[in-house]
Amino acid sequence: MNRLKLELRDIQKSFGNQSVLKGCSYTFEQGNIYGLLGRNGAGKTTLFNILYEEMKQDSGTFTLHIDGKERAVDPEDIGMVFTDNYLPEFLTGYEFVSFFLDLHKQENQLSVDEYLDIVSIDEESRHRIIKTYSSGMQSKLSLLTVIITQPKIILLDEPLTAVDVVSGIELKQLFMNLKSESIIILSTHMLQLAEDMCDELVLLKGGLLSSMEDFRSEEQFEKQIIQALSEESSAL
Ligand SMILES: Nc1ncnc2c1ncn2[C@@H]1O[C@H](COP(=O)(O)OP(=O)(O)OP(=O)(O)O)[C@@H](O)[C@H]1O
């Protein structure tokens, strides 16, 4: 039985007279990676910002169920990696990880170098300032923050877009390992990534969430998703 669940109930959000989320309800469970798919402007980032408490929903709730007990979500329950990385540009990668570890002491903590090895940031690069990093390297450093803290809920907003093929495969494997302890929700437009990595696909369309059941048993995966997202009732 799954120990940890995140339950969203009827979350609504409008900006002025634009209704973006019209009653999102869904239960996400530990042990799964969920792929959140939706057209541009469907409201994926808005939903993540609400869960991360960067933004307040107009109505609706989201709660955690731990071993059958329900409680509010605490900020430390959630880690989010954004498309745009907010990293301190004038620290080196090494200094950033060291600083981050001071703030977030972990049991069985690895050394700074061991963490940087996990995301394959090489010896020379780790002592350069982050400002000089490529966007893929910056993404890897951002992903390291959730790898270190392993929060109960991990929200990944287009995390692997700038990461090269080899690093992408390594990071995918890392998230596969993290999912046994966490609920992972991955927003992506990369259908191949969603198919490879996710256990369940969730569509955000017309301001509502729905599950795409048994997507692996469908032969024409891409065609099916494109059709689902382009039907007339789309949010756009
Ligand atoms: N702070 C804001 N103020 C006004 N409108 C906003 C705000 N944040 C988002 N929106 C609007 O809400 C809608 C959903 O935006 P959001 O960024 O959540 O979509 P998305 O699904 O993440 O899109 P994409 O795939 O393009 O990143 C868009 O029309 C956007 O312009």
UniProtKB/TrEMBL annotation:
UniProt xrefs under Pfam families: ABC_tran
One term of GO molecular function: ATP binding
InterPro entries: AAA+_ATPase, ABC_transporter-like_ATP-bd, ABC_transporter-like_CS, ABC_Transporter_VariousFunc, P-loop_NTPase
Record's signal peptide: none
Limits of the ABC transporter domain: 6-231
UniProtKB keywords: ATP-binding, Nucleotide-binding, Transport
The protein's name in its UniProt record: ABC transporter ATP-binding protein
Native organism: Amphibacillus indicireducens
